[in-house]
Amino acid sequence: MQTRQQIAPGVVRGGFSHVIENGHRVQCDLCPRYCKLQEGQRGFCFIRQAREGGIDLTSYGRASGFCLDPIEKKPLNHFYPGSGVLSFGTAGCNLGCRFCQNWDISKAREMERLTDVALPESIAQAALAAGARSIAFTYNDPVIFAEYASDCAQAAHALGLATVAVTAGYITAQARPSFFEHIDAANVDLKGFSEEFYEKLCFAELAPVLDTLRWLKRETNVWLEVTTLLIPGKNDSDEELSRMCDWFARELGPDTPLHLTAFHPDFKLVDLPRTPAATLVRARALAQKAGLRYVYTGNVHDPAGQSTSCSGCGKAVIERDGYVILGYHLDGNGGCAYCGRTLPGHFDTQPGRQAGQRARLRIL
Q1: What angle is formed at CA 57 by the lines to CA 140 and CA 118, rounded to 5 degrees?
Q2: Which residues contact 272 (CB under 8 A, 6 or more apart)?
């Protein structure tokens, strides 16, 4: 992380920027938008602002709320199943998804929405006291509050807690190493598999996301899972899904979990129907045909599509119904209780006790 300094309560001078146009503008180098800002102007994400030749993060230490979630809600199915994760986000986003299902947070343009104030050490202490196994940066994309997330991650590690980033992966190559340096697991949203989809529905580009996914898999030890929200008529055709799954198997490997989740009408796409459960079943079959071993369905009732089966003997080793774990047949190293085949991921001998439960937290 580049050197930064506290400017005012809730504001830090961030890194990832440089002066351009003979000192008249500052370019933010954190995400592929490369916002070029005049003094006082905010970037697309809203929470990063040009000031005195640098970029300030204006939401440091401020959050839109804290919850204790089951890790499966992130969703992460191969990262300490059933464990509790303290989850929080800030405001703003560096994508403009018309289907955003957290739009009241990610599209917020009022700092007053950030009603919870907490510094990194307080968050880590609260997570430990609540019995969480990890801290997740989620609800809106943590890339845009990278400095805050990084400090929270280091505070978490100091207390033996793991860290999770739930992100769209829209980050520059130069910012990736610093952002993910203290992250243990990530779920990356792969919104669709065409540049047209990203351009028209996300106001972004697909290529940088694919680069981030490849980099995470090949160059880091971050545990990676991927989520694709299937939107009727937009990204759910057999042709697009087959291309996506073939790329996924080739570039990320058959052991990287893929979550296929159902869309519900929200934000700017309220005129579309919910994703039928049959679409998820069809998409899961296409992914399995492409060679992916761990493909899950979400936002629908589908115990078969939410349980984990051993790739060796085929038996269910983690039986789930939604976020609730009904059966657990693994040792502490992820070994199948039936045939001994090791499941990829991070596991304990017994599942955590947070499964299926969510609790709102107040951090003082």
Answers
A1: 70
A2: 231, 232, 233, 234, 263, 265
In this structure, are residues 261 and 230 in contact, taking their beta carbons and an 8 Å threshold?
Answer: yes
Closest listed residue to residue 20, CA positions, set 1, 32, 35, 7: 35
Give the DSSP H/E element, type plus range, for residue 116. Answer: strand 116-117
Whole-angstrom Cα distance, residue 211 to residue 172?
9
343 neighbors 78 (Cβ within 8 angstroms): yes
Cα distances from 212 to residues 168, 287, 288, in angstroms, run 9, 21, 23
DSSP state of 336: B
- Domains of the chain from N-terminus onward: 5-57 (no CATH), 62-347 (3.20.20.70)
Q: For residue 100, give Cα distances in angstroms to 69, 155, 232.
A: 20, 30, 15
Q: What is the mean pLDDT of residues 298-324?
A: 96
DSSP 151-164: HHHHHHHHTT-EEE
The token pair that represents 363 in the structure block: 């951090």
Q: What is the value of pTM for the model shown? A: 0.94
pLDDT at residue 356, as a whole number = 67
- Give the distance, in angstroms, between the CA of residue 306 and the centroid of all CA atoms in the same chain: 19
Tens-digit pLDDT profile for residues 188-201: 999 999 999 999 99
Calpha distance 325→72 (Å, rounded):
10
